[in-house]
C-alpha cells in the first residue's frame, strides 16, 4: 500500500471517486413481454411504477458475472494509475453466488486483482451506500488506498415469476466505482454518509426461506418461502419518509443546503416514490436523475447504474453536487453527497 495523501489539516484522507462502470444483462424484457405470462398490462406497470423495460440475468448468469463486468469497466474508467493500485474489493449484494463463501473474493480473482482484501456487504437496496461508507472507512483508516466498490444483484432470482406485484418491479444489473485516497475538498470526494435501519419492520420485504432461521427449524422451506414477499403500500410510505429524512441529514452533514444540490440520484425503486421524495426536498424536476423506465429496480446496483448512465448521457457532469439516497429491505436506508468528478464511464 502506498499512502500519498492526507486530508485537510493532516487528518485522514477522504475517499474520492476515480472511475465508474456499469453493466446490465443483454436483451431488455418489456412490459409487454411480462404481460404475456402475468395478469398485468403495460399501462398498469407504467402508471404505477414508471418502468417500461428491464434487464434480467440470462440462464446460468450469476451475480459475480454481472459484478466482474461492471468492475472491469470501472477499472478501465479509473485508468492504470488507479486500477493497478486497488487493494480491496467490496461487493454490495443480497444475491451472492452461493450462501457461503462471500462472492467478492471470486470477483477480485477474476478481475486479476490477486490476493487483495475482498468481502461482501449485505444491505439490499441500500447496498451501494452501505458499501460506500465501508469503502470510505477502509480508506480513512489506512487499511486500503484504492477500493473497488461493486454493487451487483441478480435479484430476479429471488422473485416469484408468478407474483405480478414484485415481478414487474425488480431487475438485475451491476455498477461499480473505484475510490482512492484524496483530499476532502477535491472533486469526487465523498461527503459524510448517513445510514439507518429499522429491523422491527424486516417483515415488510423478506425472503423467509433459505436462511439459518428456516434451516435451524429442522423443517424444509415451505413452498414459496424461497421468494421475496413485499408489503407494497407500507414499503412505499417508509421509502419516502426515510429517503427524504436521510437526504436532509446528509446535506446538513456536508455543510450545504438542499438549494445547493444540482442532481438528485435516488434509488430507482419506483417513479412515484422518486417524485414524492424530490417534492418533499424541493428539488425541481430538471435536477432529478432517472433511468427507471429502462432498468427497473436493480436493488444495490441502482445508484451506480444511474450515475454511470447519467454521466454517459450528459445529464450528470463534472462539478455537479449530487445527492445520493437509498432505501430498502431491512429496513435500511442512507444518503450522501458528492461533487461529481471529471470521470468517463468505462
Ligand atoms: N398488474 C396489475 N395489477 C396489479 C399488479 C400488476 N403488476 N400488481 C398488483 N396489482 C393489483 C393488486 O392485486 C390489487 O388488486 P386488487 O385491488 O384487486 O386486490 C391492485 O393492483 C392494487 O394493489 P396495490 O398493492 O394496492 O397497488 P398500489 O397502488 O399500492 O401499487 C405497488 C402497487 C407495488 C406498485 C406500490 O405499492 C409500490 O410501488 N410500492 C413500493 C414498492 C417498492 O418500491 N419496493 C422496493 C422498495 S426498495
From TrEMBL:
Q: Name one Pfam family in it.
A: ACP_syn_III_C
Enzyme category, top tier: transferase
Compartments annotated for it: namely: Cytoplasm
Report residue spans for region: ACP-binding: 268-272
Spell out where the chain crosses the membrane.
none
Q: Which SUPFAM superfamilies match?
A: Thiolase-like
Subunit details: Homodimer.
Functionally, this protein is described as follows:
Catalyzes the condensation reaction of fatty acid synthesis by the addition to an acyl acceptor of two carbons from malonyl-ACP. Catalyzes the first condensation reaction which initiates fatty acid synthesis and may therefore play a role in governing the total rate of fatty acid production. Possesses both acetoacetyl-ACP synthase and acetyl transacylase activities. Its substrate specificity determines the biosynthesis of branched-chain and/or straight-chain of fatty acids.
What protein family is recorded?
Answer: Belongs to the thiolase-like superfamily. FabH family.
Q: What is this protein called?
A: Beta-ketoacyl-[acyl-carrier-protein] synthase III
Originating organism: Streptomyces lonegramiae
Protein's gene? fabH
Amino acid at each position: 500500500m502506498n499512502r500519498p495523501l492526507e486530508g485537510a489539516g493532516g487528518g485522514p484522507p477522504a475517499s474520492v471517486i476515480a472511475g465508474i462502470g456499469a453493466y446490465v444483462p443483454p436483451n431488455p424484457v418489456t412490459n409487454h413481454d411480462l404481460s404475456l405470462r402475468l395478469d398485468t398490462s403495460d399501462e398498469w406497470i407504467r402508471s404505477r411504477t414508471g418502468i417500461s423495460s428491464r434487464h434480467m440475468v440470462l440462464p446460468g448468469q450469476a451475480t459475480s458475472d454481472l459484478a466482474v463486468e461492471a468492475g472491469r469497466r470501472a477499472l478501465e474508467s479509473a485508468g492504470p494509475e488507479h486500477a493497478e493500485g486497488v487493494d480491496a474489493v467490496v461487493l454490495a449484494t443480497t444475491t451472492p453466488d452461493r450462501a457461503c463463501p462471500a462472492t467478492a473474493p471470486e470477483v477480485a480473482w477474476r478481475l486479476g486483482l490477486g490476493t487483495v482484501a475482498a468481502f461482501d456487504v449485505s444491505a439490499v437496496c441500500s447496498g451501494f451506500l452501505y458499501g460506500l461508507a465501508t469503502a470510505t472507512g477502509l480508506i480513512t483508516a489506512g487499511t486500503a488506498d484504492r477500493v473497488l466498490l461493486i454493487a451487483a444483484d441478480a435479484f430476479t432470482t429471488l422473485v416469484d415469476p408468478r407474483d405480478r406485484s414484485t415481478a414487474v418491479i425488480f431487475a438485475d444489473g451491476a455498477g461499480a466505482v473505484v475510490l482512492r485516497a484524496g483530499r476532502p475538498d477535491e472533486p469526487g470526494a465523498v461527503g459524510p454518509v448517513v445510514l439507518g435501519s429499522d429491523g422491527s419492520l424486516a417483515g415488510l420485504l423478506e425472503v423467509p426461506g433459505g436462511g439459518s432461521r428456516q434451516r435451524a427449524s429442522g423443517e424444509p422451506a415451505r413452498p414459496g418461502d424461497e421468494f421475496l414477499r413485499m408489503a407494497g403500500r407500507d414499503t412505499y410510505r417508509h421509502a419516502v419518509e426515510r429517503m427524504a429524512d436521510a437526504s436532509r441529514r446528509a446535506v446538513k452533514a456536508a455543510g450545504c443546503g438542499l438549494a445547493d444540490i444540482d442532481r438528485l440520484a435516488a434509488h430507482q425503486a419506483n417513479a412515484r416514490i422518486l417524485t414524492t421524495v424530490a417534492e418533499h426536498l424541493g428539488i425541481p424536476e430538471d435536477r432529478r436523475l432517472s433511468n427507471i423506465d429502462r432498468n427497473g429496480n436493480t436493488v444495490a446496483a441502482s445508484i451506480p447504474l444511474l450515475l454511470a448512465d447519467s454521466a454517459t448521457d450528459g445529464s450528470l457532469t463534472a462539478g455537479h453536487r449530487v445527492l445520493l439516497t437509498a432505501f430498502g429491505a431491512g429496513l435500511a436506508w442512507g444518503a450522501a453527497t458528492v461533487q461529481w468528478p471529471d470521470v468517463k464511464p468505462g
